[in-house]
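Technical note accompanying the year-one report. For the benefit of new consortium partners, we illustrate the data format agreed upon in the data management plan: each record pairs a sequence with a structure-token string. No post-processing was applied to the example shown here.
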Amino acid sequence: MMLSVKNLKVCYGKIEAIKDVSFDVPDGKIVTLIGANGAGKTTTLRALSGLEKCASGTVTLDGRNITNMEAHMLVPLGIAHVPEGRKIFPTLTVKENLELAGWTVKNKKEVKRRMEEVFSIFPRIKERASQLGGTLSGGEQQMLAVGRALVTGGKLLLLDEPSMGLAPVLVDEIFEQIVSINKKGTTILLVEQNAAEALAIADFAYVLEVGYTTLNGTAKEIEANPRVREAYLGV
């Protein structure tokens, strides 16, 4: 198992944002966490990438305990986080954003190779390599954010709401690229408000409700669950 999360609990002061969350992410698969706003999905990802401290529970990556490890130590271990809201550097060019992502890689030829791979996945941002990040459209910024994570060489990609604020045609494009990235060998943990799109591409799914994991199974099983269909799929 690439990533294993057991009984995770995260607090903001006295508020328990996550009460008891457990899930597994098998190597080479796409796993999605779905749930309503406030269920704890973003907090879970932030805890996995060292941006929030876990009050209790364990997180293991390839059998190694990484619970509460600092964020800058997790990047070289292979965790790449694409945060909600993209968080690119608006005053740097596309090229500079990508180059900066390779800070842990000593071999600059390898950084260049990874950048070329990103440009092959997202030709649109290759065309805008010299543009400032802040001048890109929302969809292009999302592509850049994903591309930046890929330049780190991460074997596990944490994606937080990649379709947020995008036009439907761009949503389809982003999800197609997520599948493509996964097929090239990157394991993906996807948090997504658009449950239908997430379940359509995922192998496994977990439902988070008020800080707990309440349902889990294959994506097809979760998609067929009457409770999920009514609450998250509108059918």
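Partners are asked to follow this layout when depositing records. Strands lie at 3-12, 15-25, 30-34, 56-61, 64-65, 79-82, 156-160, 187-191, 204-209, 212-218.
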